[in-house]
Design brief:
heterodimer, A: 339 residues, B: 253 residues, alpha/beta, 6-stranded mixed sheet, 4-stranded antiparallel sheet
């Protein structure tokens, strides 16, 4: 099978500065224009194409980028990622209906709440490793959902209704059916998340995470404050999940515990693994495909989940490291300035 | 650095029994002993992998008991591993840089916003990491992934990575394991070069000729106890050392 990752990297590296800017702008233009391609082959039968772009696709992409910091970068298996999504969403639901704060004001609060719960979960849980960590996070995800199901203030199983849409900003209006506006706003959030991850990956934090993922004991013994960096990975992952949650609540106008089941955690994990753990472009591609596919093949109705599962099984057999695996290739050993 | 009456017990097994010795500044101290004598255990208690059952380890005037492992490294002790434990999916240069991050002031936030302090440190550390790779003689491999490097280069990279953490005391755990005679000679030169550059070295090694050649002093360990602590020449003639390695004549008959 062709190695997409290396092909892509080779094209990118062969370009000069101008070429790269060109490719980046081209990619952004295509992505921004996606809502206008509803009439083409991309169209989803039955489900509304533009709303599919918002949820699941863009939402999955955002969450997968967040989860990738935790799983792909630092190798911490988190099976309760939906908890942070839920915390963001419930922060929006509660503050949006009970106070005068609007979505833009609640967004930082929701992110802060998610980060804070990341610390609360991380301090006891990150003393454990591997399977044990996975079990604890799995439990945390369920605890959050069950608390929402039983707490009167959170509306129990009826959830929270009449959550306000975001007020207009820079003259852009958010009506509940103007999907493309939500889509573009999510794109901004996604770009911010990509910027953050890429920025961190090349510096000290990226190296610390990488060393923790590969050999945590060796990292600790060579001076990496592993616990601190694991908490950071958790908290940053949580912040992205929280942001997605706030926006999700403000888009669907209604949230209930049923929206935040273990299945979401597993699906986002599937996006990360399917796309290629640790490679942000792979993760994005994985989330787009896994978000889009079930709606694209909706015309086969009940068989669609079967096909979806089959695609997963086949792909993971053909490409166990994901569509675009993490960096494995060595840079050509040509020093700059060497003649 | 000194160890005072250090005892380490695992359940009923006493791995180290009342071990007392010191490492003087800028010396190469060889630590030898038969298999299972407790040499690597000494490294593990010094670096904080195990907490001592009793006794005390003092480094630069401060006790190391209860200090977190990465802080021990930060205070100036770095080690290599007997079974190579490099970060395989990182390049040689990144391996050294990660250890060099130990003393960085800039962290996550300044890195995120690309603050000048972070950028300056990054540039300086990169140059230093390359220097260290050159210093141990593997400069040309800096861009290669650690797992793809030949065995001998990996062993040397372990040393360069430990040096990256800017230790005052360098702990080498069998750095010559698996080396052929000519590689061992080169390694001896490197170890002396490290000492001459101002580092103190504590060396575990099975190869007697190498230990005797490079060490200023040798500590011999047997069944968790120190049986000799002297210059290489005297240790070689010590009847107790010979006994530990070869057995007493009665046994042999």
């Amino acid at each position: 099978m062709i190695n997409l990752r290396d092909k892509g990297a080779a094209i990118w590296e062969s370009q000069g500065r101008l070429g790269r800017i060109g490719i980046a702008i081209g990619a952004v233009v295509i992505v921004v224009a996606l809502p206008f391609m509803g009439g083409t082959i991309l169209n989803t039968p039955i489900a509304d194409y533009e709303s599919v772009l918002v949820y699941p696709i863009a939402m999955y992409v955002l969450m997968a980028i967040g989860l990738n910091i935790v799983i792909g970068k630092s190798g911490l298996l988190d099976l309760g990622y939906v908890a942070f999504f839920a915390i963001g969403a419930y922060t929006m639901g509660l503050l949006g209906t009970k106070t005068d704060l609007n979505t833009w004001e609640i967004l930082p609060i929701g992110i802060a709440m998610a980060m804070f719960s990341g610390i609360i979960l991380g301090i006891p849980a990150l003393k454990l490793r591997g399977d044990y960590l996975a079990i604890i996070t799995l439990g945390f995800g369920e605890i959050v959902r069950i608390v929402a199901l039983n707490l009167g203030a959170l509306g129990r199983s009826e959830g929270i209704i009449n959550i306000p849409t975001p007020p207009s900003i820079f003259g852009v209006e958010y009506r509940f059916d103007s999907h493309r506006v939500y889509y573009w706003t999510l794109l901004v959030l996604i770009l911010l998340a990509i910027w953050m991850v890429r920025r961190l990956s090349v510096r000290r934090a990226g190296r610390a995470w990488e060393s923790i993922r590969q050999d945590e004991d060796a990292a600790e013994l060579l001076g990496v404050p592993t616990f601190k960096y694991k908490i950071w990975a958790f908290v940053l992952g949580a912040s992205v999940g929280g942001a997605a949650g706030v926006f999700y609540a403000s888009k669907t106008l209604f949230i209930a515990p049923d929206n935040f089941t273990l299945q979401i955690s597993i699906l986002i994990l599937a996006c990360v693994v399917f796309g290629g753990m640790g490679n942000i472009w792979g993760v994005i591609l994985g989330a787009v495909i896994l978000g889009y596919l079930p709606d694209r093949i909706r015309f086969i109705s009940d068989a669609r989940l079967l096909v979806f599962g089959l695609v997963l099984v086949i792909m993971m057999n053909l490409r166990p490291d994901g569509l675009l695996p993490r960096k494995k290739r060595e840079k050509a050993i040509v020093k700059k300035g060497a003649s | 650095m000194e160890l005072n009456q250090v005892t380490m017990k695992f359940g009923g097994v006493t791995a180290l029994n009342d071990v007392t010795f010191d490492v003087k500044e800028k010396e190469i101290l060889g630590l030898i002993g038969p298999n299972g004598a407790g040499k690597t255990t000494i490294f593990n208690v010094i670096t904080g992998v195990y907490q001592v059952t009793s006794g005390e380890i003092v480094f630069a005037g401060r006790s190391l008991s209860g200090v977190k492992r990465y802080k021990i490294t930060k205070s100036g002790i770095a080690r290599t591993f007997q079974n190579i434990r490099l970060w395989g999916d990182m390049t040689a240069l990144e391996n050294v840089m990660t250890a060099a991050d130990t003393h960085k002031k800039s962290g996550l936030v300044s890195g995120l916003f690309g603050l000048p302090v972070s950028r300056r440190e990054e540039k300086r550390d990169k140059a230093r990491a390359q220097e260290l790779l050159d210093f141990v003689g593997i400069g040309e491999f800096s861009d290669r992934l650690a797992k793809n490097l030949p065995y001998g280069v990996q062993r040397r990279l372990e040393i360069a990575r430990a040096l990256g953490a800017e230790p005052k005391l360098l702990l080498l755990d069998e750095p010559a394991a698996g080396f052929n005679p000519s590689e061992k000679v080169e390694l001896a030169t490197t170890i002396r070069k490290i000492r001459d550059a101002g580092y103190t070295v504590l060396l575990i090694e099975h190869d007697m000729s190498l230990v005797m050649k490079v060490s200023d002093r040798v500590v011999v360990l047997d069944f968790g106890q120190i049986i000799a602590n002297d210059s290489p020449g005297k240790v070689q003639d010590d009847p107790r050392v010979i006994e530990a390695y070869l057995g007493v004549p009665e046994d042999a008959s």
